[in-house]
Amino acid sequence: MKIAFLASHNGSAAKAIAEACLNGTIPARPHLLISNNENANAVSWAKELQLKTALINASNAQNPDSAIAGLLLDHEIDIVICSGYMRLIGQETIAAVHGAILNIHPALLPKYGGKGMYGSHVHKAVFDAGDAETGATIHLVDSEYDRGRILAQKKIPVLPSDSAGDIEEKVKALEPAFYIETLQKIISGDIALR
C-alpha cells in the first residue's frame, strides 16, 4: 500500500505515520508528501525520509485539485493522509483514490467541526463550552470540511483546571499514536473505508 500525505505546516502526525511505515509498525510505504505551502516544515522532514515532495497551490497550478489528483494517479497512491492540510479537498482528488482520504480533527465530531474550526479555535470552543471531554476524530474526507464518515474517535477528559492551551496540548499528544493505530486497523480490515 502506497501512502501520500497532504500537509500545510508541520505535519507532525504524518511524520509519525511515515516513520511507523519505515520501521515496519505499519505495513505500508510512505511515498509522497504534497504541500500547498513552500515554507512547510513537513517538506523538510519528508525529504529527510526520502519521500517524493510536491508543492501545489493556486500560485503554481491553474487547477490545484486536478494537479493533486494527477500526481496521486501518476504515483499509484492507495491512501491519502491529511495532517494539518488547510485547504478543502476537491472532487478530482477524492476520486483519484476512490475516497480513501483520511483526516484527523482535534475534537469529537460532529461537534466543533466545519469551516474555520481548526487548531486553537477548536480547543477554545471546547473550553468555552465547558465540555467534560474532548479528543480526536479520524474521518473520511468529502466535499465539506469535517463532514465525512467518522472512522474512529479517541476521547480524553477535560479537567476543571485545564486551559484551552492545556486541552490543545493533550489532544496534540494523542494524535500521532491514534492515527497510527487507526491506519493499522484500516490496513488489517478491522475498519472499512468503503
Radius of gyration in whole Å, from Cα?
Answer: 16 Å
pLDDT averaged residue by residue: 97
Strand order of the largest sheet: 3-2-1-4-5-6-7
CATH hierarchy: architecture: 3-Layer(aba) Sandwich
| Biggest sheet character | 7 strands, mixed
Using the alpha-carbon principal axes, give the shape.
globular
Low-confidence stretches: none
Your description of this structure?
The protein has 194 residues and is α/β, with parallel strands linked by helices. The protein has one domain: Formyl transferase, N-terminal domain (Rossmann fold). Helix content is 37%, strand content 21%. Helix 1 (12-22) links the parallel strand 1 (2-6) and strand 2 (29-35). Helix 1 (12-22) packs parallel to helix 6 (164-188) and helix 5 packs across helix 6. The longest helix is centred in the C-terminal third of the chain and has 25 residues, at 164-188. The chain starts with a strand and ends in a 6-residue tail after the last helix. It comes from Micavibrio aeruginosavorus. Keywords: Purine biosynthesis, Transferase.
